[in-house]
Write a structure and sequence with these properties.
four-stranded antiparallel beta sheet; Aminopeptidase; alpha+beta; 4 helices; globular
C-alpha cells in the first residue's frame, strides 16, 4: 500500500492524558492562539497568523482537504484535561 492509503485512514490514538486525531474545524481557536504568537512563529517555518481566517485558509482547510486524498498526515494533540488542542510544527 502506498503512503497515501495509510494517510487516508489516519488512525486516532489515545492515552490517559492525550488524544491524537485528525485536525478538525473545531481546532481553529487553539491553532490560531499559537499561530498568532510572534514568539512561536519566529522559531517556525511559517509566518505569524494575523487572523483566524488566515489560519483557516492557510492551514486548517489544506490539512483537512489533504486527508481526503492521503496528502496530509497531521495530527492534533488534544490534552484531555483542558480539551485544548495543539498541532505539531508544520
Amino acid at each position: 500500500m502506498k503512503i497515501e492509503g495509510h494517510l487516508k485512514a489516519l488512525p486516532t490514538f489515545e492515552t490517559e492524558r492525550l488524544l491524537l486525531r485528525k485536525v478538525i474545524r473545531h481546532d481553529l481557536d487553539d491553532v490560531f492562539e499559537f499561530s498568532s504568537d510572534p514568539e512561536v512563529a519566529n522559531r517556525m517555518t511559517w509566518e505569524k497568523n494575523d487572523s483566524k481566517e488566515e489560519t483557516l485558509s492557510n492551514f486548517l482547510h489544506p490539512t483537512m482537504d489533504g486527508y481526503k486524498d492521503g496528502q496530509s498526515g497531521v495530527w492534533a494533540i488534544v490534552y484531555k484535561e483542558s480539551e485544548k488542542s495543539s498541532v505539531p510544527a508544520r
